[in-house]
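Task: sequence design from structure.
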């Protein structure tokens, strides 16, 4: 009886130890997983996501079928809605603005440029992804391509359908944008736009359709590369490394005023005179054909150039180059041609050049030609 009476006392003394063994094992197992995950993520690139709003952050609106409000979802929420992003990179999100890109402005551009440069200069990030509306995505991409220094990847991404749409294209586009930004082969390529399985360069990419997800293309030189459904990235050429010199941001929060004047049949001088009366420092002509326009409009542009207003001939035609001294005597008139930059990108470059003190037509022309 003595032996039997002693057994419960022995079991009672050891029970805490027995119960602790599985808990310790579980803790060690959990710690092992966490350590493995940390080790796995340690080698991932650091990507800073800068959110500006746009359709990609849009939510449905009851006013009509397919209607939505842009910029309603934060960058952090966008990241959380895309499975697998954490396997591609170590991500942080910051909200720069929450607007539709039709309202994109100099203040947001300067904030983006400064934050990107700060993140690179302080080694806070290995790459940047910008979420953006599609309406002015190409202009933001081109602006940043001309002011951000360094060869680290900057990728801009948007969507044609809001986040709440049944067939939203934003999550897939964002996943691929992060994937491209994380790829070391993206270095030295300038700012890239990633949408609909295509990688486009900032210099040539443009929006070509009002609503289709197949809207962005590069008419004169084609995509830089592709992202296929299996997750592979194919660049069409080797990166050229660090390219043209970048431009300094002017003091303050605003670029010089440059107007775009759209040419059409029976055009007169009124739009040009109006631009001058409102203080335009430069005028970009969205000309017909090879950057041409009517005689009254050309006469007004020649008069503007003589007053020291920068005149750049671009074209309303989707593809092709504007050539000097063919249809218009550019040397005589003091005009600059945009090469193949569309009017909206020609305007951005003209603003940067004027802000940097470049105003002589010959020097302006060299700068436009140097974008190649």
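Answer:
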């Amino acid at each position: 009886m003595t032996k039997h009476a002693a057994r419960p006392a022995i079991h009672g003394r050891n029970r805490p130890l027995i119960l602790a063994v599985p808990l310790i094992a579980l803790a060690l197992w959990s710690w092992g997983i966490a350590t493995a995950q940390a080790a796995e993520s340690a080698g991932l690139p650091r990507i800073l996501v800068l959110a500006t709003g746009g359709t990609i952050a849009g939510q449905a609106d009851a006013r009509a079928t397919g209607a939505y409000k842009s910029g309603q979802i934060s960058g952090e929420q966008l990241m959380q809605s895309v499975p697998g992003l954490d396997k591609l990179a170590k991500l942080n999100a910051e909200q720069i603005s929450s607007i539709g890109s039709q309202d994109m402005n100099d203040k947001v551009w300067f904030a983006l440029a400064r934050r990107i440069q700060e993140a690179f200069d302080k080694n806070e990030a290995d790459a940047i992804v910008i979420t953006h509306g599609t309406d002015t995505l190409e202009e933001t991409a081109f602006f940043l391509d001309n002011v951000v220094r360094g060869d680290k990847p900057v990728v801009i991404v948007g969507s044609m359908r809001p986040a709440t749409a049944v067939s939203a294209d934003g999550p897939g586009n964002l996943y691929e944008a992060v994937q491209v930004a994380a790829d070391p082969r993206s270095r030295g390529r300038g700012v890239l736009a990633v949408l609909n399985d295509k990688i486009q360069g900032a210099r040539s990419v443009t929006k070509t359709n009002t609503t289709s997800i197949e809207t962005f293309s590069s008419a004169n030189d084609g995509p830089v590369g592709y992202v296929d459904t299996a997750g592979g990235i194919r660049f069409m050429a080797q990166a050229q490394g660090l390219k043209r010199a970048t431009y300094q941001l002017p003091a303050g929060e605003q670029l010089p005023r440059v107007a775009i004047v759209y040419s059409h049949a029976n055009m007169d001088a009124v739009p040009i005179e109006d631009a001058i009366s409102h203080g335009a420092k430069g005028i970009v002509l969205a000309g017909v054909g090879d950057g041409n326009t009517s005689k009254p409009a050309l006469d007004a542009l020649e008069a503007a150039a003589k007053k020291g207003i920068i005149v750049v001939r671009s074209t309303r035609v989707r593809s092709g180059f504007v050539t000097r001294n063919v249809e218009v005597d550019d040397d005589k008139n003091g005009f600059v041609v945009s090469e193949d930059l569309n009017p909206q990108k020609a305007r951005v470059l003209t603003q940067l050049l004027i802000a940097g003190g470049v105003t002589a037509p010959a020097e302006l022309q060299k700068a436009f030609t140097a974008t190649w």
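Confidence is low (pLDDT under 50) at residues 1-13, 15-40.
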